[in-house]
Amino acid sequence: MNKSAQLLKDKVVAGGFCIGCGACAIGSAVMRIVETDEGLLQAQVGEPVSSPAPIREEMDLMTICPMSGVGDDETVLAKQLFGPDLEWNEHIGHHNAIRVGHVANQKDREGGSSGGITTWLLGEMLQRNMIDYVAHVIPNQLGGTGLFAFGISSSDADLARGRKSTYYPVEMSSILQTIRNTPGRYAITAVPCFSKALRLLMQQDPVLNDRIVFVVGTVCGHLKSRFFGEYLAWNQGVKPDQLQAIDFRTKIPGRSANEYAFTPNRDYTKAALNKSVFAANWEVSLFRYDACEFCDDVFAETADIVMGDAWIMPYQQDWRGNNIIVSRRAELSAVLEEGRVSGAIVLSNASIEDVVHSQVGGLRHRREGLAVRLAHLDQEGKWRPRKRVEASFTQVDDARKELYLRRTQLSRRSIETFRFARSVGSLTVFKVLISGPVFAYYLRRYGLKRAIRESAVLKMIRRLLRPNRIPFILHAQNKSALEGKPLAK
Ligand SMILES: Cc1cc2nc3c(=O)[nH]c(=O)nc-3n(C[C@H](O)[C@H](O)[C@H](O)COP(=O)(O)OP(=O)(O)OC[C@H]3O[C@@H](n4cnc5c(N)ncnc54)[C@H](O)[C@@H]3O)c2cc1C
């Protein structure tokens, strides 16, 4: 085994810092991405293979890895990409245009995760001959065990398969191999750490550097184990081994945009609001990758453009959804502007404060929270990657410090507990075992009233007393859409 593969294994993977992006595995004779029994994709060092022909053994895998802290950090990479003159903000990175909005076509908007701008923009880039292909996440058509994977699209119809956010593990090694094998100009969608991995890889791989012409980023809170989707679906009676598909972002007429639902197996009779499920709130962070606790990038600072949810008033009141958009390329800002003028998209200017405010919780967790987590590892004398954030216990008070550490423990414990519950085939076992730590978290964070309101028992009673109206609403929505009637506001 070469030295950098050994370091990757001993430091990044063993330390829980691997995000399973696959950058180290493309073209490697020894690195591969495997799914663990915790539903996480992770790099693994295996027996050397000679096919496909290794292209990368001479490369330093630690430099390519986005989580090792060895290669250039996001700020350095972004400066190289966007130049020293483009305006920069410590929270959102470089920015050429900051907007908020949505696509005008109602069907496309309702079919997207937020405002549907990502799919629209990718379609425009294809139509305007700025790219030949899009690599993005679609329902898995390659077989295997994962429900989603990166795939290639080159038309609007293809692109539509990938709409919506995938809160499910995916990796890039196969799609990057496809890009290496197939000449053309590509755009690729990426969460912040995947975008950083791409940039680090492109520094060393001239073929990928030539072919990937745009990285289209998504704002990111954190990545989830496959257990997240399984847990949601199991609450609706779909057991993990019965889950074949899941829509994580089902929009509900009349609700605010952040009150979305999930739909397992494309069966809307099984759809339910996320908030009706015990501890499914993103703040509690069940099933989060350990590695996400050591990321300091929310706005995909190395992507050419980044889209997120407009979790700000008045936009979040509209169930159809809106995007926040930070563009870092004049040519992409021009596409947006032309779309606005033509009426294809509805856009308004937004301020840095607006977009920062829309992600304020995520930014706090990734910045002051990260400082605490780094200081904690340092105190324990453990290896950890170099970050842009300095280790510190002193930026926050003791209560806040405890909260951050508690969140980390809770997500780790949820994964271990779900693995056990899955093995004994009981969702109740999971809920019973995790309800104590979740209660303790809410109690510390918000006090007794909220802790009781969010408790497993109360959620269960609510579910028994209140019928799940989501399937009826979705049924009515489909019906009125079919009949061409206006949908509820
Ligand atoms: C794991 C994850 C966490 C997120 N966390 C936040 C958050 O905390 N705050 C926030 O404001 N926004 C977050 N987002 C982004 C948000 O959910 C929307 O994806 C974004 O606003 C784009 O919406 P849209 O309607 O323009 O996208 P759509 O038009 O629906 O298109 C989405 C595009 O993204 C691609 N895609 C989906 N999942 C992935 C993935 N995992 N990796 C790469 N490409 C993918 C799809 O293939 C599709 O091309 C997150 C997204 C993901 C995937």
From TrEMBL:
Domain of life: Bacteria
Transmembrane segments: 12-34, 420-443
InterPro entries cross-referenced by the UniProt entry: Co_F420_Hydgase/DH_bsu_N (IPR007516), FRHB/FDHB/HCAR-like (IPR045220), FrhB_FdhB_C (IPR007525)
Record-annotated Coenzyme F420 hydrogenase/dehydrogenase beta subunit C-terminal domain positions: 185-350
Residues covered by the Coenzyme F420 hydrogenase/dehydrogenase beta subunit N-terminal domain: 103-176
Protein keywords: Membrane, Transmembrane, Transmembrane helix
One Pfam family here: FrhB_FdhB_C
GO molecular function: oxidoreductase activity, acting on CH or CH2 groups, with an iron-sulfur protein as acceptor
PANTHER family: 7-HYDROXYMETHYL CHLOROPHYLL A REDUCTASE, CHLOROPLASTIC (PTHR31332)
Name of the protein: Coenzyme F420 hydrogenase
Species of origin: Sphingobium psychrophilum
Species classification: Bacteria, Pseudomonadati, Pseudomonadota, Alphaproteobacteria, Sphingomonadales
